[in-house]
Design goal:
This protein is an alpha+beta fold. The protein folds into 2 domains: 64 residues, 434 Repressor (Amino-terminal Domain); 85 residues, Sandwich (Jelly Rolls), CATH 2.60.120. Helices cover 27% and strands 27% of the residues. The protein contains 5 helices and 8 strands, in the order H-H-H-H-H-E-E-E-E-E-E-E-E. The strands form 2 sheets. It has a 5-stranded antiparallel β-sheet, with no helix packed on it. Strands 5-4-7 form a 3-stranded antiparallel β-sheet, with no helix packed on it. Helix 2 packs across helix 3 and helix 2 packs across helix 4.
C-alpha cells in the first residue's frame, strides 16, 4: 500500500477515535470540511503541510502519521484505547479492539455504520431515543452512527471489537 494511502487511513482512524466530525477537524486545521473529506478519500492529493496541520488538529505527531510502523496505541482523551485489527485500509470496513473505561455516557454522532461485539465485561449502549441496551460478553449489536450514540463499560473496564464502515455518499443525477 502506498504511504499516502496509509496516511489517509491513519487520519480517518484518528478522527474516528476522537469522535470528531469532518467539520470539527477542518476548523482545528484551518481547512474546509470538504477539503478534509477529499484528503481522507483520496479525491485530493495530500501535501506535507496538510499532514502537519491535520496531525496537530487530531493531537497526533506528524511522525505517527508518516511512520512505517504506527506507534503503540495510547488512550485517547476519553480514556479509551483503540487498537486496529488487521491492515489499515483507506476504503472498506475498519476493525478495532477497544478498551472502554467506566464513565458517564457522552453521545456523539458521525457518518457511518458500526457493529460491535463484547469480548469481556458488560457495556451499556445508547442509540438515538431507544432505551439503553446492556450487552455482556459474547453479545453483539449494530447501528447507524448517524444516530447520537454512546458506549460505556458497566462496573469495570470492558473490551469490545468494533467494526466501522463509513457510508459513501452517492451522487444523484437528475
Amino acid at each position: 500500500m502506498a504511504i499516502e494511502d496509509v496516511v489517509r487511513a491513519r487520519l480517518r482512524q484518528a478522527r474516528f477515535e476522537r469522535g470528531l466530525t469532518l467539520a470539527e477537524v477542518a476548523a482545528r486545521a484551518g481547512l474546509t470540511a470538504s477539503t478534509v473529506s477529499r484528503l481522507e478519500t483520496g479525491a485530493r492529493r495530500l501535501t506535507l503541510a496538510q499532514v502537519e496541520r491535520l496531525a496537530s488538529a487530531l493531537d497526533r505527531s506528524t511522525d505517527a502519521l508518516l511512520a512505517a510502523r504506527p506507534e503503540a496505541p495510547v488512550p485517547a482523551r476519553d480514556g479509551r484505547t483503540w487498537r486496529p485489527v488487521g491492515p489499515e485500509r483507506p476504503d472498506g470496513p475498519r476493525v478495532y479492539r477497544v478498551r472502554l473505561p467506566v464513565e458517564d455516557p457522552v453521545r456523539h454522532q458521525h457518518e457511518g455504520h458500526q457493529w460491535l461485539h463484547v469480548l469481556d465485561g458488560t457495556v451499556r449502549l445508547l442509540v438515538g431515543d431507544a432505551a439503553a441496551r446492556t450487552l455482556r460478553a459474547g453479545e453483539t449489536a449494530e447501528f447507524s452512527t448517524w444516530e447520537p450514540h454512546a458506549l460505556v463499560a458497566v462496573e469495570r473496564p470492558a473490551e469490545v471489537l468494533i467494526v466501522f464502515r463509513a457510508e459513501v455518499a452517492l451522487s444523484c443525477r437528475t
